């Protein structure tokens, strides 16, 4: 059994929700500024606590078995044979720089359950990370496991990368009375980027190109048997058959991919209507015809900072901009408390579902770099809470210990901890929601300073670790990287705690304290200078006056 306790603790936090829950972007070597591959992930759930998990490499005797617990619930699913040796894993990247993320798309409801199946989507990820040296090996491990032991989840999109390749694997079970799953995996062409966000995105695919496309042998025949597809094989679309896109799939899911693409490539305005949920259907099979491409070429090669910024978006500058409608309030808050839809006078309306959302437990950007040894080349830039206001700190994949601020058991969703990054970051964001347009500037400033420093330091840290690796061995390099990663993560948390203290002093009670030369101003007697009272913007006062009529009018005041 591998770290049963850790998996159960995380599973308990995930039980409430994978619905519309995650966002991934995938960056190939040729699309990145430094030649690394990258994938992103935001784990968005109202009950998910932000922690980082470590699984050490292990050796096992012949005949050893591995317990499988359902990732979302902690339910014991069964046993599978253990392999002789497993690799170390930090979060969602292993010591060979293989990284895996996911988004759940659900798909056809009749395929959502499979009695007797053992392998759920989360177990597939973490078993594959322990067993695979490359992305292709990870695909093989995952698909072989579901074929042998059944697939116990609904439809899932996986992002899988290694230092050379980036793949999307989309899978859905075969339902009751069947075993296993149907699936397609495609390699993102070098120089391009892709993304997915809780909506299956692979449509048609090549049948005789194993270098770039792999698929289950019955992916089309199974659909024909069920009566879901009658056309020619070349016209078969995995997504349109197994997970047709509807309004929610476009507006709440695909719109996030559109927003991320829009930050790095021109021309995405042609897909605005689709992102808004206006789906066109044409052709013999009546498939959606105005969908976005599976991958695009960015206007320039992307740095790791560019990719971090792709994960920070509320549709700013588009028709869906969450800071512009009255729901943002007087301080342009780009968040809407759930539910996603609501009804007025029997008419249903929706809130936008952006990449950045308040309920994120953790998120990351992984880098896999082919020019460095495995334990040094892989980095998981890890952050907790909302992606827009988090700070991504580098955790090298060769670390052997998790820093206190991210450590398992350091608080949970019902237990506050002073040393937990999750609670420190949530203290900052939840206070900032009160006067967002002012406070977010301070948050973004510190975020930029720290991330800029980490990125600038990375080449020197790489070089020092490589020198230790070559002269004294991998263990010394890992020790150095563990110390560095832990120090930066814990120091970042301390800086964020100072930020909270500063924001609390400056903005308490809706006032704004005066500052000069970085110091709060006192009067000549040492008392605080009278604060500013910024009030609300004019349009907000006008909206209040219009909605309240004469109720708030001053009797005998102006206008009487």
TrEMBL record:
GO terms under biological process: proteolysis
What is the recorded name of this protein?
Dipeptidase
Provide this UniProt record's keywords sorted from A to Z.
Dipeptidase, Hydrolase, Protease, Signal
Q: Which family does it belong to?
A: Belongs to the peptidase C69 family.
An annotated Gene Ontology molecular function: cysteine-type exopeptidase activity
| Enzyme Commission no | 3.4.-.-
Q: Could you say which residues form the signal peptide?
A: 1-21
Q: Name one Pfam family in it.
A: Peptidase_C69
Task: Kindly indicate whether the keyword Protease belongs to this entry.
Answer: yes
Q: Which reaction does it catalyse?
A: an L-aminoacyl-L-amino acid + H2O = 2 an L-alpha-amino acid
Q: Which InterPro entries match?
A: Peptidase_C69 (IPR005322)
């Amino acid at each position: 059994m591998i770290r049963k306790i850790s998996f159960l603790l995380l599973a308990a936090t995930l039980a409430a929700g994978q619905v519309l829950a995650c966002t991934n972007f995938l960056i190939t070597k040729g699309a990145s500024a430094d030649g690394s591959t990258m994938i992103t992930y935001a784990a968005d759930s109202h009950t998910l606590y932000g922690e980082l998990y470590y699984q050490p490499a292990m050796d096992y005797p012949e005949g050893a078995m591995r317990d499988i617990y359902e990732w979302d619930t902690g339910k014991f699913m069964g046993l599978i044979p253990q392999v002789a040796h497993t690799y170390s894993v930090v979060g969602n990247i292993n010591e060979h720089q293989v990284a895996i993320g996911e988004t759940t798309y659900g798909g056809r409801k009749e395929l959502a359950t499979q009695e007797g199946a053992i392998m759920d989507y989360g177990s597939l990820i973490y078993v594959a990370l322990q067993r695979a040296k490359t992305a292709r090996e990870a695909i093989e491990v995952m698909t072989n496991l579901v074929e042998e032991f059944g697939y116990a989840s609904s439809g899932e999109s996986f992002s899988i990368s290694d230092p050379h390749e980036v793949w999307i694997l989309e899978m859905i079970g075969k339902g009751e009375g069947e075993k296993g799953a149907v699936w397609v995996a495609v390699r993102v062409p070098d120089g391009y980027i892709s993304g997915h966000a809780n909506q299956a995105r692979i449509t048609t695919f090549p049948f005789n190109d194993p270098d770039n496309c792999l698929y289950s042998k019955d992916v089309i025949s199974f659909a024909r048997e069920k009566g879901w597809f009658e056309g020619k094989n070349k016209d078969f679309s995995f997504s349109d058959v197994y997970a047709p896109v509807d309004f929610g799939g476009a507006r709440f899911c695909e719109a996030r991919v559109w927003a991320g693409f829009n930050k790095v490539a021109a021309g995405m305005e042609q897909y605005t209507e689709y992102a808004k949920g206006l789906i066109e259907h044409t052709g013999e099979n009546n498939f959606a015809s105005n969908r976005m491409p599976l991958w695009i070429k960015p206007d320039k090669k992307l740095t790791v900072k560019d990719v971090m910024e792709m994960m920070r978006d509320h549709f700013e500058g588009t028709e869906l901009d969450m800071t512009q409608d009255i729901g943002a309030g007087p301080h342009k808050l780009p968040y809407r408390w759930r539910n996603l839809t609501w009804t007025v006078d029997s008419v249903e309306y929706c809130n936008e579902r952006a990449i950045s959302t308040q309920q994120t437990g953790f998120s990351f950007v992984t880098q896999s770099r082919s020019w460095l040894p495995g334990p040094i080349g892989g980095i998981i830039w890890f952050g907790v809470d909302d992606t827009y206001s988090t700070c991504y700190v580098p955790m090298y994949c060769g670390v052997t210990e998790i820093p206190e601020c991210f450590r398992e058991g350091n608080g949970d969703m019902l237990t506050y901890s002073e040393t937990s990054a999750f609670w420190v970051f949530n203290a900052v964001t939840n206070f900032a929601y009160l006067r967002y347009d002012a406070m977010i500037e301070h948050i973004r400033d510190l975020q930029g300073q720290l991330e800029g420093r980490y990125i600038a330091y990375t080449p020197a840290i790489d070089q020092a670790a490589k020198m230790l690796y070559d002269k004294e061995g991998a263990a010394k390099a890992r020790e150095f990287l563990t110390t560095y990663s832990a120090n930066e993560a814990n120091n970042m948390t301390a800086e964020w705690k100072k930020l909270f203290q500063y924001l609390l002093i400056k903005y308490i009670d809706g006032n704004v304290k005066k500052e000069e030369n970085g110091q709060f101003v006192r009067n000549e007697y040492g008392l605080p200078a009278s604060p500013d009272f910024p009030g609300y913007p004019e349009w907000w006062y006008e909206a209040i006056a219009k909605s309240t009529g004469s109720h708030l009018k001053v009797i005998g005041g102006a206008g009487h």
